[in-house]
Every structure is written in structure tokens, then in C-alpha cells.
# Entry
Amino acid sequence: MAQPDCPHCGGTGWKTVERIAEDEKPKRVSWEKPVADTGEKRSVWAVLCDCTGGDRAARTLARARIPKKYEHCDFDNFETDVYVVTGRYKSDEAAAYDRSLEKAKLVVEAFARDYPVGAEAGLLIMGPFGTGKTHLAIAALRKLIGRGHSGLFYNYGELLRAIQDSYNPNSQTTEMGILKPILESEVLVIDDLGFIKPSDWVREMVAHILNSRYNAQLTTILTTMYKDEEASAPQANGGGPSEGPTRSFSRANRGTFKLPSAQEISSQELDTLEKRTGKHIRSRLYEMCRTIELFAPDYRLAFREAGRVR
# Structure
């Protein structure tokens, strides 16, 4: 909404601009204005006033489809001192877990701060359940929207179901109606990549979305619980291969994970990201995204033990 006391637009939300350089002209010309006592006419454009910027950001944020439970997520409330204070873990392990969160936060926050500068067309945030992957992805999305960029959030399963539902003859939407904003949004967050059991249709659809966005040079941020065949040290977070703590994490990670269906499976039974998406898609992700790995157990348990709520 325009500021009622704005000296530039008088509260209308629009201001006029004259004699704009050819390569800076807005798309719509409103009128030509005669100059008094001369035969000259100047082109005049009506453009949105700067005082409406905050309102535009609020509207863009509302259209981003961020789930209500995640609306609070930002970088300021992403805590990185979770594990040491619980006393549940060995001191070197707990410190390593906290460093993993801190490094991941630094990388994602720097990406959002410096955007669109940088070689990466996106981020791939990998890690077990409950390590803050979605929090970081949404924090980046909210930061970018606050800076004037457009963005969209989709859970991987919901995205695929929405596309499938559009094939129903009674549906009020079409496949293209669902896909158009996904393919064209400046920034897209896909949460829980690979969670839906892969099929030929799933692989083809995901490949289409990622390839289209990559070719259009649009930014995609993805999260996934599936890792590559060989677990690596957190090099993408800014450090080289680490000793003891990373190995300790690998041992700690040999327990069980509980899926949203409440089914418990061992970490060895989890598929790799390539198996869940296909070799072509994994290769594309290597090319278009910087990989950030979170090495830590479920923080929700750690937060409860630390007497915090996240």
C-alpha cells in the first residue's frame, strides 16, 4: 500500500517519470506531455512509487506458499548451539554437530545475501531428519523475497500430487496451470526431494522442472534426506575432510529413522539420492546446485532436552 504522505506520489502509489533512457523505459507509456511555450513533447510514464515496496514484498511473501508452521523461519532464529548444551552426546561429537549447523547457516545466508552474484544456480541441502534443512531453505527464500525477488515454496510430494490431480477430468486446474509458476518463479524451493517413491513419470516430471529452470537460469533451492552413495565430510560447508567427529557421526547414524508414516527403517535401508531421482537428475543437481551437508542427529530431540522450542 502506498504511503499517504509520500511527497512523490501523493499517496496514489504511482509517480510520473519523464525522458527515461531507451533501455530503461517501462513497458507501458501512459501519455505524452506537451512542454509549455514549445513545440516539444515529452514522453511520460506512470511507474510504481518506491513507497509501495514494503507492500509488494508482503504480497509476494503471501503468494510464496510458505506453510504456516514455517512462517517464522529466518536466519536469526536458526540456532546453532543445540547439541553441546544437552549433555546427551560426547563433547567432540556435540561440538561437531553444532559446527555443522553453523557452517550450513553461514553458506545459505551468504547465498541469500549475495544473490544473484555467484556461480551457483541453487542450493541442495542434504541431511537426516530434523537437522533444520527446511528452516534454512525457507530462511533463504524469505530473505530473497524481502529483497524484492519473487519466490515459491513446494513440498516435493505436494507438488507431484498437485500435478497428478490436474489430470482429473473434474479438476479446475490444468497441468500447465500448476507448472507455469513453478517453471517461471525466480526462486523455487522444493522440500524433501526424493521422498515420493520414484516412477518413470516422477523422474520425467522432476527432470522437466529442473532442466527448464536450469536452462532459464532460475534459482532452485532443494532439501533432501537422501545422500550420495559415499557419505562425505562436510567440505561444501567450507571445511576439508574432518577426522574423529565425522566418523563418530557415521557410527551414530547407524540407528533408525522414523518416516512420516511412523515406519522405522535403518539408515542402511535408506536409498541414495540417485536411486530416488535417477542418474540424470542427480547429475543435473551437481551442475546447478552447491551441495551443503548437515551432519547431526535430529535436533528436535536435542531442543526438547535443552528446554527450547523450535
The beta strands are 14-18, 31-34, 41-48, 122-126, 151-155, 187-191, 219-224, 256-258, 264-266, 290-293. The chain has two domains: 1-56, 63-305. Residues 19-31, 231-269 have pLDDT under 50 and may be disordered.
